[in-house]
Amino acid sequence: MPSVIVVGAGPVGQTAALLLARRGVPVVVLDARTARDPVGSRAIVQQRDVIDIWDAVGVGRRVAAEGVTWRTARTYHRDRELFAVEFVDSGRSPFPPFANVSQARTEELLDERLARTPLAEVRWSHRVTGIAQDAEGVTVTCDTPTGERTLRAPHVLVCAGAKADAIRADLGLTFDGETFDDQFLICDLRTDLPGWETERRFYFDPAWNPGRQVLVHPCPGGTFRVDWQVNPDFDLAGEEASGGLDRRIRQIVGERPYEILWRSVYRFSSRLVPRMRVGRVLLAGDCAHLVSPFGARGLNSGVQDAENAAWKLAHVHNGWSPESLLETYHLERHAAAVENLTVTAATMRFLVPRTEADRAYRRDVLDRAATNPAARTLVDSGRLAEPFWYADSPLTTPNPRYPAAGRPPRGQVNPPAPGVLVPDVPCGDGTRVRAWARRPTCDPVVLDHATVPEVPDGEAWVLRPDAHIAAIVDAGDPDAIAAAVRRATGLPAA
Hints:
The protein is 29% helix and 25% strand. The protein is of the alpha+beta class. The strands form six sheets. It has a seven-stranded mixed β-sheet. It has a six-stranded mixed β-sheet with strand order 8-2-1-12-21-20.
């Protein structure tokens, strides 16, 4: 019997399974599909701190190597560049701020690793039709090609995506929020755009999509991902038949030859479940929260859900922490989802204003931003993903010398403080801090100035298994260190 059943074999479920197996937890992954469906680029922007998580399971370096690296995000209004954001690295990470690679390729790399992981098994054609739990475990009922089957495990992690309505209903969860009226046309194009290969470009109200937006991302293999905001009644088939799609593309690529690799139309939603833990069942990724894609907070936040859930489930299953540790998964990751919804909702109000007041505000900001640096800070084309800060978590030990972290300035990261992801700096033995923190052991890592010179002399930094700083205490106070270590893993103070 597996110790954990993961429902959904997308990147979130794959990551969770690999992290659980790495910590010695047998896991079975169930997916309703008959096999992998590598169609379209889908989620393409993989953030540095997520690549770090994948590095812990042996995939991160390949994602970074195959992806297109970019460090600059340019924003335009009509034909004028308003500003460019350069992304910094406070910890000298071996990975770029972002790597653009298709979700399909990421899934292939994760599948390859899963196939070499003895404690993880993937079962396709297993459509979950029911989840029931009791004091001892969870029973999952599946529809399979050979008939109905049931599986049982102490815990279940649901990573089944946005359409997991039946599972949410079984758990008594709503999925409240809204869906935006405007549609977005997405095309993967193979073409040559000199100078565009390593930059993200966002256009407000260009002459070739008046009144709306266009986003262009470079991707591997001489390809580009282009997103056009289009009318609520946009008809893709009609656009193709009339030649409108070709004209739309030509307005970007000119007379250069191009090839359409994939195209689709989406409406984006903002939704959130009220609970990300229901007894012995945890929810992660799009089945728990949906955000608009501007800022690349969907897949990236889902992978961070997976890491948070995996280390806590492993600690419980290995007897290192009590079952109550799992409640902190809901507290921490629900707060992260609220932050992502807050940020992306503000972006969508700017991108798709619904009231005359919002439209007037946007016109004023964009007009002033051409010459006024202060106005440029108000232009919202999507605040790019960043790791959440667990300053208010019950696992975090506050320190008055390090005030609680909040949202950092755009393009920057929070300085080291309790709750913040530790900068990825070198250790004295040649390893890196985050890799050291993520070792598959029960003990949190304690850093001091002797092991990592970036740690101020006289301080001890207690790191959680997901490399977040749990506490900064006096290095000469062993009782304070011990208390912070226990608190970081959900153990009683005594």
